[in-house]
Amino acid sequence: xxKTRPSPGWGILLLLLLFNRVVDAQRLPxxxxxxxxxxxxxxxRLDEVMADALGRQDFPGAVILVGRKGKVVFRxxxxxxxxxxxxxxxxxxxxxxxxxxxxxxxxxxAVMLLVEQGKLRLWDRISDFVPGFVPFRDEAGxxxxxxxxxxxLTHTSGLPPFLHNEExxxxxxxxxxLADMVGYIARIDKLFPASAEFLYSDLxxxxxxxxxEKAAGQDLAGFxxxxxxxPLRMQNTGFIPPPSLHxxxxxxxxxxxxxxRGIVHDxxxxxxxxxxxxxxxxxxxxxxxxxxxxxxxKGTFDGVRILSPLxxxxxxxxxxxxxxxxxxxxxxxxxxxxxxxxDLFGSGSYGxxxxxxxxxxxxxxxRSFVIFLTNRVHPDDTGEVATWRxxxxxxVAAAIREQ
Length: 403
What we know:
By secondary structure, the chain is α+β, with helices and mostly antiparallel strands. The chain has 14 helices and 13 strands. The strands form four sheets. The protein has a six-stranded antiparallel beta sheet, sandwiched between helices. Strands 4-8-5 form a three-stranded antiparallel beta sheet. α5 (102-116) runs parallel beside α9 (202-216).
């Protein structure tokens, strides 16, 4: 495995983390549920749901954070952060490997920032950034329509879901550079014409990470840090956490006898050194709460604007040209993957999940969000969390009693 080092900027953040007063200032203000029109008794049913899940050992532990009207009304840790090599309790301030939540929080947001800067268009062809990019070809060899940035953001490009590590190792070696992986993706067969179908694909966002770097003239981790996380003072969010933060990182799968701690779980992201457009971001529930509130505030938080109101609207609505996909620009609204919406949050709400067991759901109509973080892949990648995501969302949505 390629050795990784902390991305620049973490050192400054670590100095700030020495001062609890500074860390606490980043959390949204707390409120009693009744202050924002929610039922405390109903929210406490989350304890029962988590007791059931932990009793089944579907995952070691969890952190749940619920916000409404700009305030945190529920914030609690459950169970264990790990079972192996020894059991340790979960804490609310722990960092989770967000897995695919990287896609909307980091990569899609970076794309939209570059759109706002006039450096990208959603209609730009992928071939403009990836020379030799091969489109879908029919049985007669005729090329289909060009794949554009919005196809990647909505998972309607026709690219396969992922590459097998054995395939990458055979053709590209270990470790693998982003340029080499992008070049390989450019040449592989596309499964269907652009715009024809929805197929969730990590490859879409690996390409987007590359495009961000090309357009920004800066690596993805650095761009996201300087343009998103530092302005929002999300002090515990970034790629490749430094060793000093590893004790606060929730371990994931056990490989070669040791759990991955502070090292990205996704194998393709590991081959790329820990930074990729589809996976690699680490964060806490508190930091994700800041990001969610920024979106609910139409792009601003605590006097800092990250995105324009129209960018937030375009990202978080079903993209009209491929409405059948149920996807926005990086965000999930109504697809087979949106189990974390539950049964009660309505149309117009949006979110995303991560393979490691993480999830985020945001509802502008009720001005609320639900953050549910687990490490269901610890220790052997057999944990189950989809059912519990829905149950958690239902309990929270049912707690909303006043608009």
